[in-house]
Amino acid sequence: MRAAGLVLLALLLAPVARAEDAQVARGRALATAGDCVACHTAPGGGDFAGGLALETPFGIIRTANLTPDKTTGIGTWSAEDFRVAMREGVRPDGMHLYPAFPYPYYARVAPADVDAIFAYLRTLKPVANAVDRDTLPFPYSIRGLMRGWNLLFLGGQPFTPDPKRSAEFNRGAYLAEGLGHCGACHTPLERFGSSNNAAYLQANRIAGWTAPNITADARLGIGAWSIEEIVAYLHTGANSTSLASGPMAEVVTHSTSQMPVEDLRAIAVYLKERGAAGAPAPAPVAPNDPAMQAGQAIFVDTCGACHGRDGAGVSGVFPRLAGNPVVVQDDPGSLARVVLGGARAAATSGAPTSPAMPAFGYRLDDRQVAAVLTYIRNAWGNAAAAVPPAAVGEMRSALVARAP
Amino acid sequence: MTRPTRRTLLSASATAALAVPVTSGKAATIAGVLPWAPNAVTPPEAVTPGGWRYFTPEEAEAIDAIVARLIPADDLGPGAKEAGCTVFIDRQLAGPYGGHDTLYMEGPFPADPLPQQGVQSQVTPRQHYRAGLAALAAYCKATFAGKGFAALDTEAQDKLLAGLESNAVKLPGADGRAFFAAVLGNTMEGFFADPVHGGNRDLAGWKLIGFPGARYDYRDVIAKPNQAYALPPVGLQGRPDWRNKP
User: Fold this and answer.
1) DSSP summary character for residue A257
2) Which residues of B touch A (CB under 8 A)?
């Protein structure tokens, strides 16, 4: 009886849910489009409370606590402080942020949208999580160096719509080039960690994964995908060819699957119409090459049961290998990683199965993994460079080093 | 403050009741997707060749001779000895099977159990082989002028094995028929188990009977009855065609 009384009391005192402020709602949607939570949440930690270890070519950087905690988060920041951090990469205390936080992309976001994200972050529950923000080794530990970097690389140009393009294209460009920061992963980095804009969206190796070409190139990019297939991929993580795995599965789970389909469509239109870039197909490796012969035997016995002897896969469950751009990227890194350690597809309400591929690194040596990859890259009309066993060996060592 | 209506109170109480977290016990609730981790494999440990893990050299010699008569090499292919059945049995005896590690080994031990009751003996396979081989050695020594089983000619070996099987030959202090049955069963297991366990070397057993091995997918042949299956057998560790020589 007394317990029931306590429940009743709690109910009466519970705060009445307030209608969400329109700016906050917009900020939440924008933060989703930017996938802020993916980097600003550590495994097992609170959402937006930071602490995730980002692997960069320069060392590990731990991400900031974005909750409004006054000592360990951004509870004391003003909207102007947040605007400067987002657009210029500088904290209120004058310290420079590293571009692992992709502020060169966020500089393109409209100030009103930045303010909306800040308004949303202010509504989060404060989480006390002190993050060591200075983990980079010398000389990268000198944050002042970023001043010079910014002079060299920070465009800082707000997005301006192209009047010759459709409103849908411009919407997609604003999302993809700004908050979506697609290029942060999919554009190759230059020596000092800036995006090489001459090769925008033309594939990159990041955190041990290949972020493939997503220009409209028909062979290497998304050129052969219809608008609907791109939308399906972003919305559910699966389409008739591919399944999102690795970091892209996280993007789909936390960001694109939560976005309005019209926005995904706009991004698809932008990607399809903005242009194609990719090397022409090389001559395929000859079928009588020893690696192709061994690779075919391994494929038939090991991979064909799911991916099909003809590489056709099963729509939405097992990725298609024939004519799949992911298979013929210059960098076979993701392919080696997936064969060695396995992979898990994203789980979304539109594609909840989340099929997983088992690991084969325990029974295929580096030469055998290289052979089977060379085979799938050059069978069924595919054509791409043979995979050197050393590249598989490097990935194997990196996976061992990464293992917890 | 608004007074709760009967309806809101009832639905809220139901919600509160449902929201009570289940914290007792060790059961975990998995929501969303099943857990998954890279490199999560538990493959069978591959047998490493060379040496004996349980048998003495004399015991191994006797088992080699026995299995060579149970499945002899002939024009159809290698026999049990060549296929590594002695290695298979040795590694099995050295492992959890040899000690019946996963079986209930407390009493009672009925003297005459029903076949449906399965293993009811307190003797482990390790003890069974050691005692059986010692009894066989003693029998041979006494019967064949000091010779061991391996030194007999194949005709004498076959006669002795047949005698054990039919219970016509009595070993001193051991059940010869049960020992014969154990070796015969383990030899067949070694000949047809995956090569990862030490027997069925070069897939000899599977080639003999046309078993395609550890394959998962027959969609491309399922509609072709009465045609020979073209793909060679494959083990958990592959087949010779997988080798990508430098």
Assistant:
1) G
2) 1, 4, 9, 12-13, 16, 32-34, 36, 38-41, 43, 214-217, 220, 231, 234, 236-239, 241-246
Task: Quote the tokens at residue A402.
Answer: 């990464």
Residue B214 CA to residue B235 CA, distance in Å, equals: 6
Token duo for residue B184? 């015969």
pLDDT, tens digit, 9 for 90 and up, residues A15-42: 434 546 899 999 999 999 999 998 999 9
Check A367 against B9: CB less than 8 A apart.
no
- How far is the CA of B246 from the CAs of A290, A300, A367, in angstroms? 9, 21, 8
- Of A98, A209, A199, which Cα lies nearest the Cα of A145? A98
Dihedral (CA of A59, A142, A188, A117) sign: positive
Chain B residues whose beta carbon lies within 8 Å of the beta carbon of residue A343 = 38
* Six-digit token string for A130: 């002190």
**What pLDDT digit, counting tens, does each position of A383-396 carry?**
999 999 999 999 99
Contact B244 A8 (CB under 8 A): no
**CB within 8 Å: A11 and B9:** yes
Retrieve residue B51's tokens.
């040496």
Q: How far is B237 from chain A (nearest CA, A)?
A: 6
| Cα–Cα distance for residue pair A376/A305, rounded to 1 Å | 14
ipTM of the shown complex: 0.77
CA distance B217 to A379: 19
CB contact under 8 A, A367 and B1: no
Phi-psi bin for A181: left (phi > 0), alpha (psi -120 to 50), beta? left
- Mutation target vs B (from A363, A368, A387, A396; most B CBs, 10 A cutoff): A363
As given in the structure block, the two tokens for residue A392 are: 């598989």
Task: Give contacts of A362 with chain B, Cβ < 8 Å.
Answer: 39, 41, 43
Q: CA of B145: how far to CAs of B47, B59, B133, B142, B152, in Å? A: 38, 19, 18, 6, 11
Q: How far apart are CA A10 and CA A281, in angstroms?
A: 67
Cβ-defined contact of B38 to A342 (cutoff 8 Å): yes
pLDDT in tens, A250-309: 999 999 999 999 999 999 999 999 999 999 999 999 999 999 999 999 999 999 999 999
How do residues A210-244 score in pLDDT, each as one tens digit?
A: 999 999 999 999 999 999 999 999 999 999 999 99
Selection from B169, B124, B127 nearest residue B144 by Cα: B169
Q: What residues of A are in contact with residue B246 (Cβ under 8 Å)? A: 367
Nearest CA in chain B to A369: B244
CB contact (8 A) between residue B216 and residue A368: no
CB B136 within 8 A of CB B62: yes
Cβ distance of B16 and A300 shorter than 8 Å: no
User: For residue B25, what are the contacts with CB-CB under 8 A and spacing of at least 6?
Assistant: none
